[in-house]
Amino acid sequence: MTDHDVLIIGSGASGGMTAHELTRRGIRCLMLDAGPAVDFARDTGLKNVYDLPYRGFGQPGRFPHITQANEFNANAWADEKQNPYTYDPGSPYYWVRVRLIGGKTLLWGRASWRLSDFEFKGKDHDGFGENWPLSYRDLAPYYDRAEPLLRVSGRKEGFRQIPDGVFLEDTSPDSESIQRFLAAAKARSIPTTKPRRATGNLASSVNLLLPDALATGNLQIVSNAVVREITLDKNTGLANGVNFVDRRTTREFHAAARIVALGASALESTRLLLNSRIANSSGVLGHYIFDQFYVKNVVTAIVPEARNGKATRGLMGGSGYIPRFRNLDTREKNFIRGYAFDFGSGGSPGANLFPLYGEALLKEMAATAGTQFSMTTMGEVLPRQENYVSIDPQVKDAWGIPALHIQHRYTDNEFAMARDSMNVADELCRAAGFEVLAKHWEMVPPGESIHELGGCRMGANPKTSVLNAFNQAHDIKNLFVMDGSAFVSGGSQNPTLTISALAMRAAEYMADQMRRGDI
């Protein structure tokens, strides 16, 4: 294939942002993605549940690890039989992937929170792990530019743990049930705010980043290109392109470029580097993987005043967010770092929450329709050396590329945090006058949050990290890893906004290095 300045692998948040920033600077980019482009006119049509073979629930066993999949969205998720991976039976991992142009930005929840120096300099705060080789001040200008691109709405609060940004101001009113909850939190000095999320019907790389890049004439996108390995020049040791397979025909190709920028998502990018056997002089590649843990519906309650058809719009509806409030100015005895909550008013509790049967159950479900108030915990997972990915010596994907073995488990720190979050959520709901139907602190399996991070972490010391502060490989100066694999720690915040800001910063650095002739 024709040589390009930069070869970008992946078209999601990091790949899309990389292309957006490089092409506007006149840099010619080739983008490879393992999946096809979405035909929105064809692929987003609506069907009645009774027209679907499995009535919307999906074919049993098709997606054993993708709890988000159903028959309505099944074609959006990567097929697990074609894309296998392994883990120890006692430590399951749910690796949720999307192989389409636009990647996981086609389906993300759009929550857009900044990290702070509680994350970037976490070691300075509590002594655990490693600091990032950059600070909040270094990334703030790129957050300022990324938020308008993603059209993030929110409310400025002045919280240190989730710094304010450049938002479309959220002036929406709060329902009475939300107001009561906010008052209960305020009485306990627990901060609350509106959600901060990218707006629009589709806040995706496909409609917010790639169109501008294509319009420059400097971007070529090749779909259905499954990258096998990164290739090196034998004389210089520098990256000179990739070998890839056409997903449909299995034909082999080589694409050449001056620079290779990986943005395939954290574990996929790590897998590609491991299969290429490069960029690992530190021995760190593949280690220190983590995500955010979730406790879905840590508390489910009802608003008593809404019973029996009184769930009016003024009483019910709306949502909000509690940012991390633990281990900021004080120290918890049982855990370090912290967790956050999403909370929402509205909806109806499920039948499984009532110890009733038959007519009595139906009456109670009718009486509580629209009365639900629920909360979900998102907690920080500590990056640990023993949580890692490696190449499985026996399992390969449908194109003959060796698959990943994932070794990851939560520890006492995460378990203690989850228990604490349940107790806090229970206390807040009861203080607001809600009736708590159920509470628990069982975390979903690692990976299910779809926030996998780490594996190619950045750092100032090449002996303990894979990348420098600009996402550039210590070992190969014309190799960049732009996605969440670069993270050193992640906090309880959703990572997509930070991935986008980091990719923007790295692309700017890359362009400057190219201009200078250093790469």
How many beta-strand segments?
A: 18
CATH topology: FAD/NAD(P)-binding domain
Average pLDDT: 96
Annotated CATH architecture? 3-Layer(bba) Sandwich
Number of domain units: 1
List keywords for this structure.
519 residues, alpha/beta, FAD/NAD(P)-binding domain, 7-stranded mixed sheet, 5-stranded antiparallel sheet, 12 helices
Tell me what you see in this structure.
By secondary structure, this protein is an alpha/beta fold. The chain has one domain (4-516): FAD/NAD(P)-binding domain. 24% of the residues lie in helices and 20% in strands. The protein has 12 helices and 18 strands. Strands 1, 2, 7, 8, 9, 10 and 18 form a 7-stranded mixed sheet that branches. A hairpin with a 5-residue loop joins strand 9 and strand 10 (252-262). Helix 1 (13-23) runs parallel beside helix 12 (496-516) and helix 5 (136-150) crosses helix 12 (496-516). The longest helix is centred in the last third of the chain and has 21 residues, at 496-516. The two termini are 21 Å apart.
Summarize the structure.
This protein has 12 helices and 18 strands. It has 519 residues and is α/β, with parallel strands linked by helices.
Secondary structure layout plus pairing:
Layout: E1 4-9, H1 13-23, E2 29-32, H2 40-43, E3 86-87, H3 117-120, H4 122-126, H5 136-150, E4 152-154, E5 168-169, H6 176-187, E6 197-198, H7 205-208, H8 210-215, E7 219-222, E8 225-232, E9 239-246, E10 252-262, H9 266-276, E11 292-302, E12 319-322, E13 339-345, H10 358-367, E14 372-380, E15 388-396, E16 402-407, H11 412-431, E17 435-439, E18 479-481, H12 496-516
Parallel strand pairs: 1-2, 1-10, 2-7, 3-16, 4-5, 10-18
Antiparallel strand pairs: 4-6, 8-9, 9-10, 11-14, 11-17, 12-13, 13-14, 15-16
